[in-house]
Each structure stands twice: as structure tokens, then as C-alpha cells.
Amino acid sequence: MRTLGDDDPRELGGYRLLRVLGSGGMGRVYLGRGPRGRFVAVKVIRAELAEDAEFRLRFRREVEAGRRVDGRWTGRVLDADPDAPRPWLVTRFVAGPSLHEAVGAHGPLPEEAVRALGAGLAAALVTVHDAGLVHRDLKPSNVLLTLDGPCVIDFGISRALDATALTTTGVSVGSPAYMSPEQANGHDVGPASDVFALGSVLGYAASGIGPFGEGNDQAHMFRIIGHEPDLSRVPYSMQLVVEACLHKDPAQRPTPAQIVTALTPYGDPGTLFTSGWLPAPVVEGMARGAVELLEIEADPEPAADLAPTRVAGMEATRLATSAPTSSDPEPSAPAEPAGRRRGLWKYPLVLLVGAAVAAGSLFATVGFGRDEKPKKKALPAAELPVEYARVWQGQRVGGAWSSDPGVRIETIKVALNRGVIGDRVGRISYLNTYFQVRCETVVSLKTVDKPRIVLGAGTRPEDRSFCAQSDATLDIVADGTLEFTMTAPDHETYATTLRPV
């Protein structure tokens, strides 16, 4: 946030403007305060766009549609005036950093945080698409992070900008690094375009760089259209979902509802946003932002003798003041400044915020609340040894059911994360070649007795009755490899040597 400049209005449509939150191709966004005192985000459209009649018409339609979007993971439109000399709209203010800010300051998100983020963003797209909108500009700076999950902002409004005939310098339609191939080619886009952008956003969250690398806008668009994404730094458990989102053919991409199902064990993304889902440094930054908002609350009101604020073409609006009239009795003692009186409540709230952050940091640091098994974190012997926590891969040749054991070769991949006994610590993927079924099962940590660990019976996918639901054993060898053994439902034993990828 930055303070208002000389060219920034102080009041608009009954909303007092306090700080500049940011600027973009469509206009400038302000932190404002509504008539009831709550913080809001006020977007004011650029003057040159306001002069285009076609833009105004489409902007009005999008605002009307945006009012219908009222989901848990979206920034709701609260108020708007598309007919004002400078059209504006108001959304709820989300007190949290953007994904772009969080990753830029603290690095990629942990794997489980990326999974939760993907589920929340997919759920947001379900809400947006159900309202008949296409976001068209889903990117890290349009994703805000809160303790309760992500919030997608600017949904649907970009369609108005896309349709205008303006070619003003500096006005960009979408963000090239997060466009879909059809969007980069200038073709019509639909909901599947948002799914492609979602895949790019998750790739960025997991690795700190977009799946199509870095460079200028032309380089990004060239790679998006003609190159495959680089997912080498995306955790293995998320690669299948991200890869499906980034399919060049829109018809082959999953729907947002399918993504929610794939990433959420119980169909409700909210179950993934437990205390500690965000890294501790991100939570601490959010607390500092909350304190900054409290300091803004203590800012003095504008003096009564100042000239009323004007916005070009609008009637002057005088801000309300609390100055006493001549009929008011004289106070017996000097009155305390209004800003200080209003700010008294902030000090106990600062203490509460500080306590909450300390607790949040503790949760994020030691893992309390993630699986509601904090006591087990104190037992080192029950943890997955750190040398196991990586992606392993090996090839298996032949098998009991193969007529030509020397020909059949299949890859077995095991992705493991840190965890304690009872936690879901990874996934095993392989091909059951007898039934020609690709299996990917989630496994939990069952026992730890170095050099052997046992992964508990996997949770097999729906309609995959031939995928293993049996325990798998891993024995670490002196040369740094793992001996892997598992028995499938067809009684065939899968045994091979795994090496780190």
C-alpha cells in the first residue's frame, strides 16, 4: 500500500479512499472505507477507457453478472457505478498478500499448501463459471491468500476489456505468462481457458517460476502455443493434475469440478485449510499487514474547512465531520483528538493479532493441526526418515503372469513426504500390465524400523479394483537405493530397486 497522491481522489460514491493498493491495465485500486466503516477495495477505471461507449456497455453487463458471484473463494462485488464519469466498482477487501507477493518474498509453497490452493482455486472457478463468466486473467497477482484459503479477484471483468476496440498503449488483455494457447492465438476463449491458467498458477506456486519459464511476453506466448510445460520442479503428487490442466486442447482439460474432486478427499476444499496451511513467514507478514490497517484507523479525519473532494464530472461531495456546532456546550477539559479516541480499541486487538500470529507460527512450525496428531511429532522414531522423503523410481521386468517376461517392462514410481505414523506420506504409481490398468494409490506410514519402513494399504482410485490395497515395504540399501516390494490384488508381487529421481 502507498499513500494517496495529488491526482488521487479522496472520496468516491460515498466511499472514503485511504490508500492505493495497486494499478493495472483497467485502472487503479484503492483501499476504502464504506459508509458502515468496513474496509473495501475500490477499483476506478482509467479515463481513456471510460470514454469508449462500447467498453461502458460491456463493463455494465459484467458488473451486473459479477454481483451474482458470491462464493467462498471469490471477491464479491458489493457496489458499482458503471455510468459515472470514471466508472468504479467496490469489492470486499481481503487482508492478505497475493500469491505473487507471498512466493516472491518467501519462495514456493509446500506441497500440501499447493494442493489446498488448487482445490480452493478450482472451487472459485466453479462459482465464476456457474455465473456465466470467464475470468480470462487468472494469475498469481489475482489470487489473494488468507488463513481460510485463497480468494480470486477480478473475475469476469476482463471480458469487458477484451471486447473493447481500444488499442491504447499499456492496455493488455490478460497476462501472457498465464494465457491459454487459444487466448494467445486470439481465438474465442471459454471456461477451459481458465483451467489452463489454473495449471500455470499452481506450477508457479509449487516452483516459484511459471511452467513456461521466464522472458518477455512474446517468448511466453511462443512457448505456450508450441512448447510443452516444464513441470520438473512441481511435486510428483501434483504433476498429473497440473499436466492435465495444461493440455493444449481445451476439450481435453478437466473441469474445475473434476479438479476439486481430484484434490479434495471429502469433496469440500474447506477441510484442507486447517491451521498452518500457510508457511509461518507468510502468516507473520499477514499480521504485520493487519497492524498497518489498525494504524490507518487512527488517521485523522479531513479538516472541516478543506474544500470538498471533486471527481471530474461529478457533483462535489463534502465529507462528514464531527466538528461541534456553536450550540454545543463547551467541554470542561480539552477534548482528545478524534483519531486517538477511535484508535484506542486497536491496542488490545494488536495483542490479539500478535497472539494469533504466535500460535499460527507455532502450528506452521511444528505441524499442529495438520493431522491433529501433535504428540506424535515428538517421537523421532515414528517419523519417516528424511532420506526417504523424495521421489523414487525403478523398472520392473516381466512377472508371474507374463508369457514373455523378458519383454514386459513397467515403471514404478514412489513419491514420499515427511510425516509420522498414521499420516498419508505419499503415492505409489505403476501399471498393472495384466489388466492394463494405470494405478496411483495414496499410502500412509505404517511402521518405521530402519532400515525398513512399511507403507500402509493404499487407497485405490474409483473403478480401479485391480490396483493394490496391500502394504508395501521399503528397505534402504547401503548404496542409497531402496528395495521395494508390494503385492497386487491379482497376487502378483511387484519387487524392484528404486533410485532417487
Task: Give a nutshell description of this structure.
With 501 residues, the chain is of the alpha+beta class.
- Main sheet: which strands, in order across? 9-10-11-12-13-14-15-16
Specify the CATH homologous superfamily of the largest domain.
Transferase(Phosphotransferase) domain 1
Radius of gyration: 27 Å
Biggest sheet overview: 8 strands, antiparallel, barrel
Structural class: alpha+beta
Structure write-up:
With 501 residues, this protein is an alpha+beta fold. The chain folds into three domains: 93 residues, Phosphorylase Kinase, domain 1 (2-Layer Sandwich); 169 residues, Orthogonal Bundle (Transferase(Phosphotransferase), domain 1); 119 residues, Lipocalin, CATH 2.40.128. Helix content is 29%, strand content 21%. The chain is built from 13 helices and 16 strands. Strands 9-10-11-12-13-14-15-16 form an eight-stranded antiparallel beta barrel. Strands 1-2-3-4-6-5 form a six-stranded antiparallel beta sheet. The longest helix is centred in the last third of the chain and has 21 residues. The protein is elongated and about 75 Å long. About 21% of the residues have low confidence.
